[in-house]
Structures are given as C-alpha cells and as structure tokens.
C-alpha cells in the first residue's frame, strides 16, 4: 500500500521552504474586474487555499501588459499600479497562514477570446489556430486568425514579461511562474502547427524553444535571484489535448537541457489528460523532465488522488504535485488528506459551466 507521507515532507525551492509537496495548480477563474483588477472574491478564493494546508499556491495566468497579452474577459493583469495594489491585498491575505504564493505570467498570443485592448492576437505565424474558443470563458466559435508577431514585438514581449515580473515582486509574491504551456504564446512558438516561421524562431526544436529561453532570461535578469522563477511547459493544449512533441524523447531532452542551461528554479510539466505514459514508452512527461532537467520538477495532471501523487514522488519522477480541478473541488484537500478524511468529490464537469469563483461556490453549496 502506498504511504501518503512523502506528500507531507518539506521541500526547498531556492531559499524558500515549503511545508509540504502539494501545490495549487494555476487556474484561471475569470473573476477580476473587466480592467483585470483583482477582486475581493479572488482574495477569499486564494485565502481558502492558504487555510486548506497547501504547501504552495500558483495563481491563475495573469496578463503582463496592456497590449496583446490578455486572453480572457475578467482575467487579472499585473500590468499597472492598480493591478499591483490589489494583488498585494491577496498576497498579504494568503501570507497570514504562512503559505507562499507564486504569480503565473501569461501571454495569450493567438488564443485571444475577448481582450479589452485588442481584437486579434499576435502569434508566431499568421495561421488559423486549432480548436474553438472556450465557452466557459465567454468565447464562441473559432479564434480570430492572429497577426504574425514581428521581431520588434518579440523584443517588446520579453520586456513586458520582465516588467510584469518586477511588478509581481513589488506586490510581494514569493515566486514567479512563466506560462510556457497549454497553447498560449510561448507554446505557440514550440508547436509545429502554429509556428511556420523561417527565421531563428521557427524550424527545428533549437529555434522553436528560443522564445521560451529569451523570456526566461529576461525575467531572471529582472528578478536577480530575489525570488524563485519557474517555467511551465506541456505538450497538450487547451485547443488540442492530443498534441505530442514530434521528436518525442529527443525533443524532451533538448527542451529540458536547454531550460537547465538558462537556469530557472524549477520546471512545471502539465497535461490535460492526466500523467499518462508518452511516446509509446512506459514513462510520463514528468519522468523525462526529471531525467533531462536534473532539477526541481513540479508535475500536474490527475494528482488529486493522494496515492497517485505519493507514488510519483516515491519514484522520484517529480518533487512536487500540483493539483488543478481537485483543488477547485476541495480547497481543503491537503488538510483532509493529512487527517485521512479526504472526501473530495471530483467532478470534472464542474469546471465547464462553473468557471468563475462565484459559480463554483454555488455549485459546491448545492452538491457537496
Ligand atoms: C478552470 C481551470 C483553469 C485553468 N487555468 C490555467 C491557467 O491559468 N494556467 C495554467 O497553466 N493552467 C491552467 N489550467 C490547467 C491546470 O493548471 C492543470 O494543468 C490541469 O487542470 C490538469 O490538472 P488536474 O488534472 O489536476 O486538473 C486550468 C485548469 C482548469 C481546470
């Protein structure tokens, strides 16, 4: 029988000590104001996690500038003074229970659903993106064909990530996660179907991972080691749950070694369908991240089952287990697991019509 005790061992990310290995995965809750200002209900939401015993909270994807980065209506930003001020209230509230909180920085790229600043997104290439807008984030139909990002815009975007990181530091966050996954701008560069460039950002894996590295370097330079900086990465995407890196393990080896050479505090691998074996091998993506990154790995995907999470840590395929939908279903999950009364009723469907914090609350009242 798998013991759950590895989940409750301390862990160190740089100089930050986490009390356990359970992490709230970044989850968009579209509950900010229309100007992206964090709200009171968001404060209560993140406070629920801090009281629930999590070792670390990673916030929802937060847009970095008032230009092209916003993806969803009511998504929060970290691009101006008011954003910083209101995030600070959330950070302070979460810190009351001594829980560290990292801000996830996102640029939506071509996956714009509704954006108060722009009608069309920018992406590596002017090509229609797969999939459809997410109805639970107020979208409908195909994504508008994005404009091709220029070299100048690439440089500007790297600076926007760097200034957003400085804003996060000012708001008191304990760390920063760069969203390099799930089909958004960085991942659009890495993915063959959205990147048809023939300059140094397109073509082989060496070029397609360049933008991740430049953004990471820009943020590391801005933060100067004051707080941890991590990178999230995935094969699957909100607009394609099936995608795999075409070079399989060879790509993974290149990507994670390259990441290591730039030097984030951790990599965070995510998958939409649970941590299943990849490329017809016996191993999942976290295993390959650990093998080639040779540093701290957070894994995410179906880890609300404590035995599954503990097993992953026991096998040393990851250091930390991030939980998404299971955390929405039960913000008190770590405390419940610890006191062996986990009664999480995990219902994947709940996140579709109930994307906002308010709707999740009424769903919980009725169903749990
Ligand atoms: C409602 C919701 C919102 C999400 N928003 C984000 C996000 O802002 N950033 C991100 O990196 N992943 C996001 N994800 C993906 C999750 O972090 C996680 O990778 C995914 O749900 C798989 O983990 P799970 O099986 O524990 O739910 C979101 C997932 C859900 C369910």
List the helices and strands and how they pair.
Blueprint: E1 11-13, E2 16-18, E3 22-24, H1 40-51, E4 56-63, H2 81-95, E5 101-106, E6 122-123, E7 147-148, H3 151-171, E8 175-179, H4 185-190, H5 205-208, H6 210-223, E9 229-234, H7 249-262, E10 266-270, H8 285-293, E11 297-300, H9 306-314, E12 320-323, H10 325-329, H11 333-338, H12 357-367
Flavin mononucleotide binds at residues 25-28, 60-61, 104, 179, 181-182, 232, 270, 272, 300-304, 323-326, 351, 355.
Textual characterization of the structure:
With 368 residues, the protein is α/β, with parallel strands linked by helices. The chain has one domain: Aldolase class I (TIM Barrel), CATH 3.20.20.70. Helix content is 34%, strand content 14%. The chain has 12 helices and 12 strands. It has an 8-stranded parallel beta barrel, surrounded by 6 helices. It has a two-stranded antiparallel ribbon with strand order 1-2. A two-stranded parallel sheet has the order 6-7. Helix 1 packs parallel to helix 2. The radius of gyration is 19 Å and the shape is globular. The two termini are 28 Å apart. The structure holds flavin mononucleotide (FMN). The site of flavin mononucleotide has 24 residues, from strand 4 and helix 10.
